[in-house]
Amino acid sequence: MSTSTATAPKLSEQEIVNKFNAYKTDLQTIASKISEMEAETEEHKLVIDTVTPLNKDRKCYRMIGGVLAEKTVEDVLPTLKTNLEGVSLRNQFIFSHINAYFRFKA
Dihedral through CA 65, CA 68, CA 73, CA 74, nearest 10? Predict the structure, then answer.
């Protein structure tokens, strides 16, 4: 009866360097995307904090598909809060997948 032990294949120095460079590129791309997502979240929070104390009938403007639309604070605030929740959920989803990706790669 033979026993089989799983051994990792030996990688050449160039293969190791290539793998390292691929990880480095992945990390840079992910760090850039995380920065974008955090900036988007902070932008939503800033707008919500700014318009919340205002009179509900006050005019405000919102960019919708490249068109500037006139609305009231009362109309815009619920949409902003919903969008913030969506952005936060998306961020959590992506962060969990990033963690899974690097656990798999390790």
Answer: -50
36-56 tens-digit pLDDT: 999 999 999 999 999 999 999
Residue with tokens 């815009």: 76
> Domains along the chain?
13-105 (1.10.287.370)
Main-chain phi, psi angles of 53, to 5 degrees: -75, -5
CB 56 within 8 A of CB 74: yes
Whose CA is closest to 90, among 29, 42, 38? 38
CA distance 89 to 40: 13
- Predicted TM-score of the model (pTM): 0.70
Residues with Cβ within 8 Å of 56's Cβ and at least 6 positions away in sequence, in order, are 72, 73, 74
